Amino acid sequence: MSKINVPRAKHGWLQFVAIVLLIVICIVGTWIVARATAPRTDEATSDEESSGSSSAQTAEPSVADSALDSLGDVAHQQAGIVIDQSKSQLTYIRLSDGMHLGSANERFARPALSLSKLYIADYVIDEGTESEKYDALHMISDSDDGIAEELFAAYPESIDEVAKKYGLYSTDAGEYWGRSVTSTYDVVKFIRALKDEDPLHPILVAMSQPDEIAADGYEQDFGTAVLKNVIGTKWGWSNDRDIHASVSFGDDFIVAASVTGSARDLTKLVRTQLSGQKLEEATTWFLESQKPGGGSKKAPEKIISD
Known about the structure:
It is a single chain. The protein is built from eleven helices and seven strands. It has helices at 2-37, 47-52, 63-68, 116-127, 130-142, 145-154, 158-166, 184-197, 202-207, 263-273, 276-290, and strands spanning 88-94, 100-102, 110-111, 181-182, 232-237, 243-249, 253-260. It is globular, with a radius of gyration of 30 Å. Strands 2-1-7-6-5 form a five-stranded antiparallel sheet, sandwiched between helices. By secondary structure, it is α+β, with helices and mostly antiparallel strands.
């Protein structure tokens, strides 16, 4: 009996040792992996360290910090375009002295709607045939979607190339011109470039001669067009009429606005935020900031009420 049982005992003991060794190896392996993937000791490992300690590693800046405080750096990379989820957006600039008013989100991307037709037209004027150039200007005056589809099909690179040309960092064509994005800041920047290039640029002339009724039967009489001394306007609206936008210019100003809401909502936004009182207050601040020692004064980053 003993000659038979002893080997079995030894065999069981060897199995037990093997299992113990396997467990030890697993524990050591897990510890090594944990050490390899764990943060270094000089990195912040708690909320207090990451936000309150000067010796802790600085946290990645938020969208508000990077995109607003440093003039839209987040949006300077096409892959990093920031989409604006707020209800409204507005940008205003006075050309004679450079006074600039804008909502805090003015550099973030929103649906471009028919404002993208301005970009398409600019490209076609440079690259298109004579017939296409006339179509492009007609497209601006009556906001003809059919012409936009034809021109964008012929020049799918148009919106993105114009964005590169003028440094419109929140503008992108996407897969279709009707789904392109831009910002009120970009649109104002674009119109200013056209005015600097030629006060009688064909696109500006087309904007100054809009049809009262657009090609789809929608009235073009709202938004920034209601301001005094407006010379030209381009309007935009979504198919479901849930989003409206417009850009206008005068001899000494350019203004663009966009709102998630009706045409009436857009008009109300413009009249409220660019009332005579608002502009007077902004002018007073601006003139004070231009005086010696006045540069430390900072204009409010946001003029649109929440």
